[in-house]
Amino acid sequence: MLSRTVKDTIIEYVSEKNVLFDEDLSKHTSFKIGGPADAFVEIESIEQLTKLSEYLDRVEEKYYILGNGSNTLFSDRGYEGVILHIGGGFSGITVSGIRIIAKAGAALAKVSKTAQEHSLTGLEFAAGIPGTVGGGVVMNAGAYGGEMSFVVDTVKAISPKGEEIELENKSLEFGYRYSILRHRGYVVTEVSFNLKEGDKDEIRARMDDFNSRRREKQPLEYPSAGSVFKRPEGHFAGQLIMEAGMRGFQIGGARVSDKHCGFIINTGHASAEDVTELIDEIQFRVRDRFGILLEPEIEIVR
Ligand SMILES: Cc1cc2nc3c(=O)[nH]c(=O)nc-3n(C[C@H](O)[C@H](O)[C@H](O)COP(=O)(O)OP(=O)(O)OC[C@H]3O[C@@H](n4cnc5c(N)ncnc54)[C@H](O)[C@@H]3O)c2cc1C
């Protein structure tokens, strides 16, 4: 529980309209799961972000950076601390030649569409990824042979010491669903993409193709967080899960998707506990059958 002083200071830094107390996190995650956060703050500027994170560090209150919540599972108990939401309030996109500069809260789909409108190719893969630029670069999001590391030029971020820094692509140590940003506590504020000139109609056609493949293969009609597990080397997580006989396997309201076994869907009233129990069961059965430990790709915030 936050003290009155902490609550008042948050409001003073970001204005009352941008703060929600005891806000249900199920409203802010694609899983539609998660109990209340002590405070949920809509960030609109770097200044707000630095002042607030510095203050919360000083008074020893926990905080969590959230983008679109499309890769995150919060606990049913919620989050004891402050969610700093980097979304629509921090989402400007500018185009300069073959470069696109996007604030961290911009939707990947919107950046991808902006690139297409300016006949710039390279971001088609991101058209159907329901995350933000910040969440995407941190996770090195990717699909259909593309990934953020191929198109990111530089990243502006706030370091754990509160300094504004700029990092070049090669210093981000991108790997499969990995960048150093993820584990070193950097908060991404802006990303500069380096793209190539292309044909507007061909770019549009590629985006449409990727999106129709998604609709065909993925259970987009249900709340989920996309693929739950990382791809183990030489295998596909969904296929291993299917071969372990778990298609449609359900715990509470959480179910292995019948359409794509790599997805866990919320059939209506799944709790975070249902999902984590299902993850444990999948890991157990797949390991038992194939000797492979599936590692979660989603961020589980306990
Ligand atoms: C239907 C569906 C399909 C999906 N398809 C794909 C896919 O094809 N490929 C793929 O890679 N992923 C996919 N995902 C997963 C997800 O959309 C991506 O991982 C996305 O990049 C997450 O972005 P986000 O803004 O939602 O991140 P969040 O879930 O909000 O956060 C994820 C992590 O990033 C951190 N974070 C967020 N913003 C920042 C920031 N500004 N600075 C520092 N840290 C930050 C959070 O603290 C957290 O650790 C899919 C998800 C769904 C629901």
In words, what does this structure look like?
With 302 residues, the chain is of the alpha+beta class. It has three domains: 4-85, Uridine Diphospho-n-acetylenolpyruvylglucosamine Reductase, domain 2 (2-Layer Sandwich), CATH 3.30.43; 90-203, Uridine Diphospho-n-acetylenolpyruvylglucosamine Reductase, domain 3 (2-Layer Sandwich), CATH 3.30.465.10; 219-301, Uridine Diphospho-n-acetylenolpyruvylglucosamine Reductase, domain 1 (Alpha-Beta Complex), CATH 3.90.78. α1 (4-14) runs antiparallel to α2. 31% of the residues lie in helices and 26% in strands. The strands form six sheets. The chain has a five-stranded antiparallel sheet with strand order 6-7-13-11-12. A hairpin with a 2-residue loop joins β9 and β10. The longest helix is centred in the last third of the chain and has 19 residues, at 272-290. The protein is globular and about 55 Å long. It has nine helices and 19 strands.
CATH architecture of the largest domain: 2-Layer Sandwich
Tell me, what is the CATH class of the largest domain?
Answer: Alpha Beta
Spatial strand sequence of the major β-sheet: 6-7-13-11-12
End-to-end span in angstroms? Answer: 17 Å
Give the bound compounds: flavin-adenine dinucleotide
Low-confidence stretches: none
Give the helix level as a range of percent: 25-40%
- How many domains, in number, for the residues? 3
CATH topology of the largest domain: Uridine Diphospho-n-acetylenolpyruvylglucosamine Reductase, domain 3
The value of Rg in angstroms is 20 Å
Order of helices and strands: HEEHEEEEEHEHEEHEEHEEHEHEEEHE
- Strand fraction band? 25-35%
What is the tally of beta strands?
19
**How would you classify the helix and strand content by structural class?**
alpha+beta
What's the main sheet like? 5 strands, antiparallel
Mean pLDDT, to the nearest integer, reads 97
